[in-house]
UniProtKB/TrEMBL annotation, chain B:
The lineage of its organism: Bacteria, Pseudomonadati, Pseudomonadota, Gammaproteobacteria, Alteromonadales. SMART domains: HATPase_c. Signal peptide: none annotated. This is HAMP domain-containing sensor histidine kinase. Keywords: Kinase, Phosphoprotein, Transferase. The keyword Transferase applies. The keyword Kinase applies. It comes from Corallincola platygyrae. One of its GO terms (molecular function) is kinase activity.
């Protein structure tokens, strides 16, 4: 029995924690809030969609998140979790619960690398929620050091912790699964296999079976992997990760048609994953299946638009695939694609409106499209506009996509002089860690003392490469420089904080470590009242 | 449009599955509203407690029925895959009891649990929980005032027992579960489908040549019915 004293302690524990409840049904949000209040919680934020939740979590980094999987038309709960995690916003000790009325959800999603701490099947009662949160918080506390080490990619440390956790009954099973992932990440296939084998020996656990497929694919090749993956799919057609692995196995054997079929199956189950749609487009390309490629890329960009994990590459690939399709079509069909491409280009440009690179890239595609349509005058005009902007900044252009496109335009226009310049830049091997024109432009502007313009370029660069540490550090530094002569706005302060949070992931032996520490100091000093 | 007389071709089972899903969502909201109401009302007006508990019980039963329907539909289409993971049986049972706390309190039932500490087993949490929940809900309905839940490992099986001190299972039910597959009797009323469901869930848990089973008896140490679930 709980004593009165421990009851108060318990109440206090909830009062100290901050909760975030995400659901598109207001009744559900309010019910869960009431439940949490009954447990003693005082700080509870509510969000009705992933976008609001993203903003709220970024600001408060809650201790406990209860999110529905289905969040209406926008992003779903899994996508939100992935974005928070991959952008380095998610705290290691945040307890993340995914709720759904569908009780097979964890099966569809369960084998992913980025997974919530637990799944809740709706409806749940106050008491269920209470017992579950208490139990999981205790477990999470044990796992936090492991998650932190994993996030820093410090595998030696993570391995040591995971091994030690084998002594903790409540965390043992989860830690074992992480241990297998640590071995996979380090390509220690034998050690990973030992774990999977032992687990499968006990029971046909899905994650371990999938693990064995992965190991077989790496060490023995596609044929062995197929033998292991087929039975999983025979039992469960909704195991998306099994479809993904089956596709990889077929690719390994050079059978791209079978690979594409498998990926299509995975997409039918789980249509929103950017990673999977990228993969499908790539495989369709190898199959020379232009129609499917365009279809996957359209689906990809539709999803990417709402995601912080989008890349300019996603949009460029779709632009190029549509150009390809234009060239392969005739008459009215060609005009139709041309019109569609025009309106999509406008959207792409708007999406990356601050990026010089994307403005130039879309101009190049416009010129190519005009050429494909036989509109020579329009093509030339667009080409000249692009050339005017590019030539003076050629040393900053980093992406091969833009350089090669410009190169082919130069050839089409028989512009020897420009061709020489672009060839020179293509041969220039001094590339940044991230090949990003906007980052380069930012560095140039920064060293010339144009700090505010540099900030804009770095911000555009960060939009394109949200996980890049190099760019995050540049943006933070430029913002802190700007703060010397103009106080930062709330948005700018938040952006700076997010950049610094991300750059704290740098391992201690990285040569940028000291620089980041300096920036953090300056940021803290900035926020202290004078 | 051609002829009006042309019959619509409806894949009725899919329609059913979709509607069931939708109904479950509504029920989920209903149950949660009931819980909220119960939280607000029972302190000030304890006399409404039993009525609310009844509402909650019936709504949970409906929810359970829909779940069965959905699961059986999937099983029929060979789409009932198990998601086996390692669970602490104590956690599982704690949640089960917590879920029904409202009803347990309002009916003044004593629930006792006796579970080997650190007993872990490999189960499909959702399916097994909903199976056991059905049994517990049934026990709560028919017990006088006592329920006992025990769990232990025995001869390579996880054995979970739920006993009560009610009048026990009716005769028809005791004989029914043994030959479930061929005589699912829809006329037999409330529990037929539930038992069929339990049977399917249990036998879907397999290990090597061993298969899970259920057993219904009237030889409880408390004097009423005993439901036993054995999982390999």
């Amino acid at each position: 029995m709980a004593t009165a004293n421990s009851m108060t302690d318990h109440f206090q524990r909830y009062a100290k924690r901050r909760f975030l409840v995400i659901d598109d049904f207001s009744e559900f949000r309010l019910t869960v809030r009431k439940m949490l209040e009954e447990f003693g919680a005082k700080q509870i934020d509510l969000a009705s969609n992933a976008e609001d939740a993203f903003a709220l979590y970024s600001e408060f980094r809650h201790d406990v998140v209860i999110s529905d999987f289905n969040l209406g038309d926008g992003k779903d709960g899994q996508q939100l979790l992935e974005e928070l995690s991959q952008l380095g916003i998610l705290r290691h000790d945040t307890l993340y619960l995914m709720a759904s009325a569908e009780n097979s959800l964890h099966m569809v999603m369960g084998a992913l690398e980025c997974r919530p701490d637990d799944y809740l099947t709706k409806p749940f009662t106050k008491n269920t929620l209470h017992t579950r949160i208490d139990r999981l918080l205790a477990k999470k506390q044990l796992l936090t050091p492991l998650l932190k080490a994993l996030d820093e990619s410090n595998y030696a440390k993570a391995e040591a912790i995971a091994l030690k956790l084998q002594q903790e009954p409540k965390a043992r099973a989860t830690a074992l699964r992480y241990l297998s992932e640590i071995y996979i990440a380090q390509e220690k296939w034998d050690k990973a296999k030992t774990i999977f084998d032992a687990a499968v020996q006990a029971r046909p656990i899905l994650w371990a079976r999938l693990g064995l497929v992965k190991v077989a694919l790496e060490t023995e090749g596609g044929e062995s992997a197929l033998k292991l993956v087929e039975p999983i799919l025979a039992e469960n057609t909704r195991a998306v990760q099994a479809w993904d692995l089956k596709a990889l196995a077929h690719e390994n054997l050079g059978d791209y048609q079978a690979a594409q079929d498998a990926l299509q199956q995975a997409i039918n189950v789980s249509p929103r994953s950017l990673e999977r749609l990228r993969h499908a487009a790539l495989v369709a390309d190898k199959n020379q299946d232009l129609d499917s490629k365009v279809r996957y890329l359209k689906q990809l960009t539709k999803q990417a638009k709402n995601s912080s994990l989008k890349t300019p590459e996603d949009f460029i690939l779709r632009q190029k695939a549509m150009l390809e399709k234009m060239n392969a079509s005739q008459g009215m069909a060609k005009v139709k694609i041309a019109n569609e491409l025009q309106s999509l280009l406008k959207e792409d440009q708007k999406l990356y409106s601050a990026s010089h690179f994307m403005q130039w890239e879309t101009m190049a595609v416009r010129a190519e499209a005009a050429l494909a349509e036989g509109k020579k005058e329009a093509a030339k005009e667009m080409y000249l506009r692009l050339k005017k902007e590019l030539v003076s900044n050629m040393d900053c252009v980093q992406e091969d996509a833009l350089l090669t496109q410009f190169q082919s335009l130069c050839k089409a226009m028989s512009d020897e002089e420009a061709l020489l310049a672009v060839n020179k830049q293509l041969e220039n091997t001094e590339h940044e860690e991230e090949r990003c024109t906007d980052n380069r432009l930012g560095l140039k502007l920064y060293s010339d003392g144009h700090i505010k313009e540099a900030v804009k370029c770095f911000a555009a660069a960060r939009q394109q490469h949200p996980t890049s540490l190099a760019i995050a550090i540049n943006l933070a530094q430029a913002l802190l420089k700007q703060a010397e002569f103009q106080p930062l706005s709330k948005t700018e302060t938040q952006a700076c904080k997010a950049c610094l949070n991300l750059s704290l992931k740098l391992p201690e032996d990285d040569n940028r470590h000291a620089r980041v520490q300096q920036l953090v100091k300056r940021f803290v000093a900035l926020r202290e009242p004078k | 449009m051609s002829s009006k007389k042309q019959p619509l071709s409806i894949d009725f089972s899919s329609v059913l599955a979709t509607s069931v899903h939708d109904m479950k969502n509504s029920l989920c909201m209903l149950i949660q509203s009931l819980d909220t109401l119960a939280m607000q009302i029972t302190d000030e007006n304890p006399k409404y407690g039993p009525e609310l508990a009844n509402l909650h019980y019936e709504a949970s039963r409906l929810n359970g029925d829909l779940l069965h329907l959905l699961a059986l539909y999937r099983a029929d289409r060979q789409q009932l895959p198990l998601h086996i993971e390692e669970f602490f049986i104590e956690d599982l049972v704690d949640e089960l009891v917590a879920r029904n706390q409202l009803y347990i309190q309002s009916r003044g039932i004593q629930v006792e649990t006796d579970i080997e500490p650190d007993l872990c087993w490999y189960v499909d949490q959702d399916l097994v929980t909903s199976l056991l929940n059905d049994v517990l809900v049934n026990a709560m309905r028919y017990t006088q005032n006592q329920i006992q839940i025990t769990a232990r490992e025995r001869e390579g099986f996880l054995e979970i027992e739920i006993c009560d001190n009610g009048n026990g299972y009716p005769k028809e039910m005791l004989s029914m579960h043994t030959s479930m597959q061929d005589n699912l009797n829809m006329q037999s009323g409330r529990t037929g489908l539930g038992l069929f469901f339990a049977q399917i869930i249990a036998s879907a848990h397999r290990r090597n040549d061993l298969t899970g089973t259920i057993e219904l008896k009237n030889s409880s140490s408390l004097g009423g019915s005993v439901f036993t679930l054995r999982l390999p």
